[in-house]
Design a protein that fits this description.
37% helix, 10 helices, alpha/beta, 2 domains, 321 residues, Rossmann fold, 4-stranded antiparallel beta sheet, 26% strand
C-alpha cells in the first residue's frame, strides 16, 4: 500500500480544439482528506477528474494515484480509484439490486460483506424501496443515485465524485454527505466537485478553487477566509449615497454603500462615520459584513476576470500600436 498522497497532479495542462481546459494544475490529496473543487461551469472540474482517472490524457504534466503513474500504468492505477461522473453508467436491463450486486462482485466483495454494504448504500441513497425495480424504469435522478452508490460499495484509496448530489432532494443529499464523510474517516481520499458551498462545511472539507483551468486558491475554508477575505461596512441612506473618495474601496448600489475595511472594524466604522459630515443625517442603517467562503470565491474569481481583461486590453493595445 502506498504511504504517500492518494492523488498527485503536477503541471497538468490540457487543451481541446486549441482552447485551454487546464493550465499548470498542481493538486495533492492525502488519504482521509476531502477536497471540494469549487468552480463555475467550464472552469475545468470535470476535465481535471477525467485526467486523474486516466479517462483523458493530459498534454503535459504528471498524475499519480496511490503511488501509480497514471500516464505509464493507467489500468493499474484505475484499480485504485473510483469515479462517479455526471453521466450515469448503469445496466438498464438489470434491477437496482442486481446492478449493485454485479458491481460489488467486480470489486471483489464477498457475499456477507456485499450484502451488508449493499443495504448500507441503498439506504444512504434512498434506494431501499426500489431495489427490485428494473433500472430502465428509474428517473434520471434515481439512476444518478444508483450510479454513485455503485461506486461507493467498495471505496478504493481515491474517490472522484463529480457533483454527486446534483438533482437529489435535501434528505438524500444529507445521507450522501454523511456517507462520504464516513468514507474519508475510514481513509479514502476524496476529490469532490460541487456548486453548493454549504457542502464544504457539511463535509468539513478543504477547498480548491478552480477558474479558467487554473487552481487559484487551495486550503481550508478558515485559511482562505483569513488570507483572502475582506470585511466591509454597509451603509444604507434615505437617498443616493454621498461621494467618499478618500476612504478606500467603495461600492454603491441604489441607496446602499459598501466600504472595504481592515482588521479593526470599530475604528474603521468610526472613521467612515466621521467622514459623512452633513450626509450623516440621511443615514438609515449601518451593518458590518464579515467575509465568508462565498465572498472569497466571488472576489478571487472576479479578480481573475479583471486580470484577464486587463491582459487582453494590453495585448490588443500593443497590436494596434
Amino acid at each position: 500500500m502506498n504511504a504517500g498522497p492518494a492523488l498527485i497532479m503536477e503541471g497538468v495542462c490540457k487543451r481541446f480544439n486549441g482552447l485551454r481546459a487546464l493550465s499548470s494544475v498542481d493538486l495533492q490529496i492525502e488519504p482521509g482528506e476531502i477536497v471540494v473543487l469549487l468552480g463555475a461551469n467550464g472552469a475545468g472540474k470535470t476535465t481535471l477528474m477525467s485526467i486523474a482517472a486516466a479517462l483523458s490524457r493530459p498534454d503535459s504534466g504528471t498524475v499519480w494515484v496511490d503511488g501509480v503513474n497514471m500516464l505509464k500504468q493507467p489500468s493499474r492505477g484505475q484499480r485504485r480509484l473510483g469515479i462517479a461522473t455526471q453521466q450515469t453508467g448503469v445496466y438498464p436491463t438489470l434491477s437496482v439490486r442486481d446492478n449493485l450486486r454485479f458491481f460489488g462482485e467486480l470489486a471483489g466483495l464477498r457475499r456477507g460483506v456485499l450484502d451488508r454494504r449493499l443495504e448500507e448504500v441503498a439506504d444512504a441513497f434512498d434506494l431501499i424501496d426500489m431495489l427490485d425495480r428494473p433500472t430502465r424504469l428509474l428517473s434520471v435522478g434515481q439512476a444518478r443515485r444508483l450510479h454513485t452508490a455503485m461506486i461507493l460499495l467498495h471505496p478504493p484509496p481515491l474517490l472522484l465524485l463529480d457533483e454527486p448530489t446534483a438533482g437529489v432532494d435535501v434528505a438524500t443529499r444529507a445521507r450522501m454527505l454523511e456517507l462520504v464523510g464516513n468514507l474519508a474517516a475510514d481513509g479514502s481520499a476524496i476529490c469532490y466537485s460541487s456548486h453548493y458551498l454549504m457542502e464544504v462545511d457539511q463535509l468539513e472539507a478543504n477547498v480548491a478553487i478552480i477558474h479558467g483551468g487554473r487552481i487559484i486558491a487551495r486550503g481550508s475554508p478558515e485559511a482562505l477566509i483569513s488570507t483572502h477575505g475582506q470585511s466591509a461596512v454597509e451603509l444604507r441612506f434615505s437617498g443616493a449615497p454621498p461621494s467618499l473618495s478618500d476612504i478606500g474601496f467603495v461600492q454603491t448600489s441604489g441607496t446602499t454603500m459598501r466600504v472595504a475595511i481592515d482588521h479593526e472594524p470599530e475604528l474603521d466604522i468610526a472613521g467612515i462615520l466621521a467622514t459623512l459630515g452633513a450626509s450623516a443625517k440621511h443615514l438609515q442603517g449601518v451593518k458590518l459584513i464579515q467575509p465568508d467562503l462565498e465572498s472569497v470565491f466571488r472576489s478571487l474569481t472576479e479578480q481573475q476576470v479583471l486580470r484577464r481583461n486587463h491582459d487582453e486590453l494590453e495585448v490588443y493595445g500593443g497590436l494596434r500600436s
